[in-house]
Design goal:
The structure is a single chain. With 296 residues, the protein is an alpha/beta fold. The protein has two domains: 212 residues, Rossmann fold; 76 residues, no CATH class. It has ten helices and 13 strands. The strands form three sheets. Strands 5-6-7-3-8-9 form a six-stranded mixed beta sheet, sandwiched between helices. It has a four-stranded antiparallel beta sheet with strand order 11-12-10-13. Helix 4 packs antiparallel against helix 5. The longest helix is centred in the middle third of the chain and has 18 residues. It is elongated and about 65 Å long. The two termini are 17 Å apart.
């Protein structure tokens, strides 16, 4: 299997604080990967390490088989769009395209001009006069038209209104299918990830809690509801992800490969948001154990 990103015990420390630690993941090629977690979980740090903008404190990371940002050729293979959709306010749309053509050896000028025309962006307009959605689309165009093998997007739609978010994600999906890109998309908006992603990574407390193909993750996680029951009475192959109790009822989210035969349980499937929240809501003492189980 070909991996676009591999991390082994990857960590980044700022002073005494770990922004990311013990991160071990393998992201297969050909996926649109959703990276999700609460604010401060380490999402941006992981993406900057993958983009070569930061050096790790511990462990290592390879992107497309090489060290991130190590050579101009390696940089050309990766597109990066940061959270603030970085464009130059004083430059026009056309000037952005000309600058990108000079900086990127595989720049596709025809694709860039076609996208700009289709999006209705006026080449003579300065980026500082564009709306938030237009700036985001311009940044996405710059990232796509360098023709990368991997496109990294760090919460690019966080500040956009719902219509602009939908248009951005639609444009991303069209480009992904057309150019067979691998994409890593960070967001705290699970509904957006649900539209476009087929692979999921959940990052909480600076550690990976869950990673895998979305369909498989949803198929192996279930919500169980029953009159109050102690978790020690659950079968050994049902790993408890989260639990809540009332005086009379217990509700568990469990991960298991096996069918659930106990007729006492009411078994319901999880949506992607339910799955993400189950891992994010775990008590800190339990998170480390689950992360280790998931990574085995």
């Amino acid at each position: 299997m070909t991996f676009v990103l591999e991390a082994r015990a990857l960590g980044k420390k700022y002073g005494k604080r770990w922004a990311l630690r013990e991160c071990t993941i393998e992201i297969p090629a050909g996926h649109v990967v959703g990276l999700v977690g609460p604010n401060g979980a380490g999402k941006t740090t992981l993406l900057k390490l993958a983009g070569g903008q930061l050096e790790p404190t511990t462990g290592g990371v390879t992107v497309l088989g090489g060290r991130p940002g190590s050579t101009p050729a390696q940089l050309a293979r990766v597109g990066f769009v940061a959270q603030d959709t970085p464009v130059y306010a004083g430059l026009t749309v056309a000037e952005h395209l000309r600058l990108s053509a000079r900086l990127n050896p595989h720049w596709d000028d025809g694709m860039a001009r076609e996208r700009i025309a289709r999006l209705g962006l006026v080449p003579a307009h300065r980026a500082g006069r564009l709306s938030g959605g237009e700036r985001a689309q311009l940044a996405l165009t710059l990232g796509l038209c360098k023709r990368p093998e991997l496109l990294i997007l760090d919460e690019p739609v966080a500040s956009l209104d719902p219509l602009a978010r939908r248009e951005f994600l639609q444009g991303l999906m069209e480009a992904t299918v057309e150019h067979r890109l691998s994409v890593v998309l960070s967001s705290h908006l699970v509904s957006d990830l649900e539209r476009v992603c087929d692979y999921l990574i959940v990052l909480v407390d600076s550690r990976v809690q869950l990673a895998g193909e979305v369909d498989r993750l949803l198929a192996t996680h279930h919500r169980l509801t029953d009159p109050r029951r102690d978790p020690d009475r659950l079968p050994a192959d049902q790993h408890v992800v989260s639990a809540s109790h009332t005086d009379r009822q217990s509700t568990y989210v469990v991960r298991t490969e096996a069918p659930i035969h106990d007729p006492a349980w009411t078994v319901t499937p999880l949506g992607l948001e339910d799955l993400v929240l189950a891992y994010m809501d775990r008590r800190p003492a339990e998170r480390r154990r689950v992360a280790l189980e998931v990574q085995r």
